[in-house]
Design brief:
The chain is α+β, with helices and mostly antiparallel strands. 46% of the residues lie in helices and 18% in strands. The protein folds into two domains: 73 residues, CRISPR-associated endonuclease Cas1, N-terminal domain (Ribosomal Protein L15, Chain: K, domain 2); 232 residues, Four Helix Bundle (Hemerythrin (Met), subunit A) (Up-down Bundle), CATH 1.20.120.920.
């Protein structure tokens, strides 16, 4: 739920029950006693760090060390997001407990055990793509049967692969077919034909890059809470500080959260080609639309969904999946991915 705090100021700041998102330029985040003060020429906003779990800064915002210190004191996760290159950085203190037994078990997993869990993650990711296409097929009068058949064949290949590289190949082929299918739903004016990562050259890839960056921050936070080593991946490899395990788990939530938001915006005509601009060969969202897109993403994170017979927000489901992954690793249990209905 979005709370309207200050007229005008709300254009740049969206305050939710658990997430505070600041976008735009010229904002200052300071400490005022035991409160956080966000100021601009349009006014001031005060909030208690007890009220939020995550502060997301998507613009040129000044944050003082005193404000950071207070936020960390209350275990608030601070995330900085930029459009370029899907970059994001975070400031957080050690959250949860460090579990030496879990880390040792994770680091000593055999290649066979890693592949076993990675297969479940990839199978889940392909399944979720199929479910997305099936939903679109029902609602948009488009026949995806050939593409769905191909994806089902790729799912069968998952159990036959003998290496992470081969598994990545299966996942890559499934991804290629999935995005090719999505292009049939997206109006030609958006010039989307396939998934192309950084730099994005069309509006849809621009939204995908930005949305997946936000999703990655949520998944990383969930894994930190679970006590897992975010750099020790099962499928993806870590290099240059890449949070490989977060990239692994994120595969299960791309369709349910980011892709769903983008398709909904397009189908409802809440986004147009005029919401983007081409700068140095890179397609970027204009500031007004970026704020609206962020709001849509965080609304989706807070949307209720039935998970294991319990109603909970998507952002809590991500945390529960991270805990399930930790339990599977520590106690040699079968891991079950998040399958989107």
């Amino acid at each position: 739920m979005v709370l309207e705090l200050l007229r005008g100021f709300l254009k740049m700041i969206r305050r939710k029950m658990r997430n505070l998102v600041i976008t735009g330029y010229g904002y200052k985040v300071k400490r005022k006693g035991n409160l956080i003060k966000v100021s601009s020429v349009e006014g001031n906003l005060y909030f208690s760090p007890k009220e939020i779990e995550q502060l997301i800064i998507a613009g040129d915002v000044m944050v003082t060390s005193a404000a950071i210190s207070l936020l960390l004191e209350y275990d608030v996760d601070i995330v900085f997001v930029r459009q370029r290159s899907g970059f994001f950085a975070r400031v957080s203190k050690t959250i949860g407990d460090v579990y030496p037994d879990l880390w040792r078990k994770q680091m000593s997993l055999s290649s066979i055990r890693k592949l076993e869990i990675a297969r479940e993650i990839v199978d889940t990711a392909i399944y979720n793509r199929i479910r997305m296409l099936q939903q679109l097929e029902r609602n948009r009068d488009i026949d995806f049967s050939m593409d769905i058949d191909f994806l089902n064949r790729e799912r069968k290949q998952v159990d036959n692969v003998s290496s992470p590289l081969s598994l990545m190949g299966v996942e890559g082929q499934a991804s290629k077919i999935y995005f090719s299918s999505l292009s049939r739903v997206i109006p030609s004016v958006f010039q989307f034909t396939h998934r192309r990562k950084h730099p994005a050259v069309d509006p849809v890839n621009s939204m995908l890059d930005y949305g997946y960056t936000i999703l990655l921050s949520k998944v990383t936070y969930a894994l930190l809470l679970s006590g897992l080593n975010i750099y020790e991946g099962l499928l993806h490899e870590s290099y240059r500080g890449r949070t490989a395990l977060a990239f692994d788990l994120m595969e299960e939530f791309r369709q349910a959260i980011v892709d769903r938001v983008i398709i909904t915006l397009i189908v409802r005509r809440e986004v147009s080609i005029d919401d983007f601009e081409l700068i140095e060969g890179m397609c970027r969202m204009k500031s007004d639309f970026r704020r609206m897109y962020l709001d849509a993403l965080y609304t989706r994170f807070e949307q209720m969904y039935t998970y294991r017979d319990v109603e909970m927000e998507f952002q809590d489901i991500i945390v529960e999946q991270a805990k399930s992954l930790a339990d599977a690793i520590l106690n040699d249990r079968v891991y079950h991915g998040f399958r989107y209905r």
